[in-house]
Amino acid sequence: MNSFSFKAANVLVLMMLFVVCIACSACGRKDQSQNIIIVSAPVAGEIRRVMVREGMQVVADQTIAEIAVYATAQSTPLAQVEDRQARAARSIQAANAEIEAARAEVVRHEVEVQRLTVLVASGQASQGDLDGERALYDQAQQRFQKARNAAQEAQAGLIAARQPDFASATPFATPLAETVIVRAGNSGIVTAIAARIGERVTAGQPLATLRSH
């Protein structure tokens, strides 16, 4: 074998060894990657809770984290809030006026009942007159009680109108949260945690890394 052929054979052997090394290296990376499990956020939202820690053994379907997904609901405009409060205040005013009128009627009929009671006892008035006045007195009492109930309801309405869901002065959207559970697809050991409580994440963002057995 001449010198040129010998050198060519050496080069060919080195190239074959290089290809074999690359193939072996590729196989090693593939096997290693098969043991790594990435747990990603299924939706965009805010991390509410992280349920695992590094080095922890987890099983399939175990909760990794919780994500709060926010929707929006339009709050009540200020004009509508003020209108509710104004109507409640007018109801209270009307009920108080009715209470005073009913109280005056009760007092008037009570005095008349007492007067007729004396007259009936002395024979100067009939029992029918007294019974009729007592009926009017009972009606006045019922009117007074009804007015008091109306005043209490009106007061409760004013309190409800001043509650936060009615009294929001901003026309902007109010956030409402729905919780999405992020679970492990397979069992393994937690090797890294990327999720942090309060962090905003996007759909597909890695939250944790597991190494399967």
Structure, described:
- It is a single chain.
- The protein is of the alpha+beta class.
- The chain has two domains: 36-75 and 176-213, RNA polymerase II/Efflux pump adaptor protein, barrel-sandwich hybrid domain (OB fold (Dihydrolipoamide Acetyltransferase, E2P)); 78-167.
- 54% of the residues lie in helices and 23% in strands.
- It is built from four helices and eight strands.
- The chain has helices at residues 3-34, 78-121, 127-161, 164-167; strands at residues 36-40, 45-50, 57-58, 63-74, 173-183, 188-193, 200-201, 206-211.
- The strands form two sheets. Strands 1-8-6-3 form a four-stranded antiparallel sheet.
- The longest helix is centred in the middle third of the chain and has 44 residues, at 78-121.
- The two termini are 53 Å apart.
- 13% of the residues are buried.
Features:
213 residues; alpha+beta; OB fold (Dihydrolipoamide Acetyltransferase, E2P); 2 domains; 4-stranded antiparallel sheet; 4 helices; 23% strand
In terms of topology, how is this protein built?
Layout: H1 3-34, E1 36-40, E2 45-50, E3 57-58, E4 63-74, H2 78-121, H3 127-161, H4 164-167, E5 173-183, E6 188-193, E7 200-201, E8 206-211
Antiparallel strand pairs: 1-8, 2-4, 2-7, 3-6, 4-5, 6-8
Helix pairs in contact: 2-3
